[in-house]
Amino acid sequence: MIGLVELLIMLAVMAFCAYQRMAMKKAMVINGAALAVLLVFVDNSWGFFLSLLVYAVVALFYLLPDLRIDWISRKLYRFMQQVLPPMNETEKTALEAGDVWWEGELFRGKPDWRTLLEYKKPTLTEEEQSFVDNETEELCGMLDDWEVVHKRKDLPPEVWDFIKEKGFLGMIIPKEYGGKGFSALAHSTVVTKLATRCPSAAVTVMVPNSLGPGELLLHYGTQEQKDHYLPRLAAGKEIPCFALTSPVAGSDAGAIPDKGIVCKGEFNGEETLGIRVTWNKRYITLAPVATIVGLAFKLYDPEGLLGNEDKEDYGITCALIPSDHPGVEIGRRHLPMNQAFMNGTTHGKDVFIPMSMLIGGKDYAGQGWRMLMESLAAGRSISLPAMGTAVAQLSYRMTGAYALVREQFKLPIGRFEGVEEAMAQIAGLTYRTEASRVMTAGAVDMGVKPSVVSAIAKYHMTEMGREIMNHAMDVHAGRAIIMGERNYLANGYMNQPIGITVEGANILTRNLMIFGQGAIRCHPYVLREMLAAQLDDEEEGVKRFDSLLFRHIGYGVSNFFRTLGLGLTAAKIADKPVAGETGKYYQQLTRMSSVLALTSDVAMGTLGGDLKRKERLSARLADVLSHLYLCSTVLKYYEDQDRPLSDLPYVKWNMEYGLYKLQEAFYDFYDNFPNKVVGKALRLIAFPYGKSYSKPSDRLERELVKPMMKDCDLRDRITQFAYVGKTEDDVTGRVELAFKKVLAADEVRYKLRKAMKAKELDKNLTNMERIEQAIEKGIINEEEKQLLTDAETARLDVIQVDDYAHEQISGVISD
């Protein structure tokens, strides 16, 4: 018995050191001290001697690195060289592009929540807020989405002029070049607001400010290129596009066949060193109206004209070519999901361009893939997440209003539990999209290029936008499926697949990028181990690998004891940075973060390079990392808003929703893990008492929906960037005004309901007939009658849909 007690004591000491992630030296001292105490004060038995043996072996390898290298590290180093999949330069560049930010803390199993809460609250400057409130508001008022999409297939000329004149195309260009010099948050906010009114206008504005020549010139352009192009881009004198995708290279953009051969040719009447480029590109936004074309192609120098005769293949390179340059062809337009933003093709065959047209000049030959990956890491954090947020905010505001105004069975449809369930999803996810949008754009403004976080934001916020839109369509029912001037949802519904597809298709993003890139970038040791294993100098590689390997083992041991300890105590022992009702959520997320760290290590250790091919497994771990991040954004957003009491149901819903999703992703991963014993063992360690989290309750979801059907501060705050028209004939204005009229008449409507219950009014009459009957019987006065009549008139107007003569819809729709 004493032996077992001794063993348990030593295990407890080791577990404490591992849970605290102590340095090896400190842990050795504490464990040594514990053994000394047992030696002095206890009659030693087998438990002591077994512990002493283990301690001695560990100490031996710790104190004698040469022995450790020869016996262990060198063998594992060679094994790793054999099992690691080959990594080409393109993959290596993609992996190394961008920065690791908060997602690194979440991946490593012990997030420092105080660091998260200390990040500066993202806010708009006074100038940026004014631009949103004035120029953007005015632009929204100029836009008629039905006319843009179904009649013109383009923005009206006056809208184009306004966009150029007011600087919408140069929001990210610094002021010294004539641009706005806005933050990423401001860029995101402008796109969000525009997209609630007209997605085609939002896309038109966001492309030049995202992955376009402006972004590339800012970071990599020569001074001459910046001085020439940036002022012209800021003033709208140049319309840029960027051509990357080719018919045979979509998601696999690194495989583009477009090529340029370094050669000498004639430019401006003189023989010049340049490139003869051939390309065939499609899906290029703004190409049909572009005046300058950013172009990605593979560069080859067979004659060594760039000065290195040993190097022929330079890789992907970016150039900026005027669209009227000889040989440049702008093709015909695409019609993506019937939307009106400009999108089309561009071609060129053996087009000679001087070296001065390379972005960054000759020095950046072959650096195009890195330039694109780094720009994408920032741009993907802003534009498409903003589009998803726009869908959410407009759906929240309009669905809540419509659910109050629209009656069936003599009740607003929002009172029915089935409708309430769909509305709760809209409400909870809208809060989540805004929180994620703000925090992710805020990261860019902190100078971070968050490559993994941007992939999470792009994937989940476009998917949430699609889910929210589906619920909104369901609640609006027939009102949403009839196309016409009154429909504010159908065009957005049509638009959803575009965001899902572009900037890395969502299937690719979830299955390969989020966890595939995240696991390697966020893990404290894996990327460095991989790079060490690829060194040509084996001795140097073994030396580096040895140092990393034993820290990696300590990290794994720590994750095991942390996961087990947090599971057994239901995370009660985890630190929490705040008091109150949200404190427990930090503890639970710490627990799930620890489970992710352990599970990832075991998966990578047992599957090795096969994990890359087990896409469905890695996608589930991608979901785990994503929900940890999204839950973090909600907690951060709540704290940054000074913890308003009215937000608490939304925070609770998001935490319960997120934790449930985390749990399900882990269970699916363990159930499908190829080694069933390992899968079951992991599940037992992570969830020792079985499943721990449930979906949000019906009662909580009811609390989420109530503000949607009230004219309250929370509703205004959650939908603050949803543009709503001001007049009764506006597509969204009529719904908002009817909503307010119905609310204004609520007390009088209550009088009528009481009278009906008392059988003083005929319940079989129409609402208008009942109002007349109520005035005849003296139940309401003339002022109350007017309130009811106004509300009923507005209500009946809102539920109408458009209809057309056959001639109008048999061809091109016209007035």
TrEMBL record:
Enzyme Commission number, as recorded: 1.3.8.7, 1.3.8.8
Pathway: Lipid metabolism; fatty acid beta-oxidation
Cofactor: FAD
One Pfam family from the record: Acyl-CoA_dh_N
Enzymatic reactions: a long-chain 2,3-saturated fatty acyl-CoA + oxidized [electron-transfer flavoprotein] + H(+) = a long-chain (2E)-enoyl-CoA + reduced [electron-transfer flavoprotein]; a medium-chain 2,3-saturated fatty acyl-CoA + oxidized [electron-transfer flavoprotein] + H(+) = a medium-chain (2E)-enoyl-CoA + reduced [electron-transfer flavoprotein]
Annotated TM spans: 46-64
Domain of life from the UniProt record: Bacteria
Enzyme class: oxidoreductase
A single GO BP: fatty acid beta-oxidation using acyl-CoA dehydrogenase
GO molecular function: flavin adenine dinucleotide binding; long-chain fatty acyl-CoA dehydrogenase activity; medium-chain fatty acyl-CoA dehydrogenase activity
The name this protein goes by in its record: Acyl-coenzyme A dehydrogenase
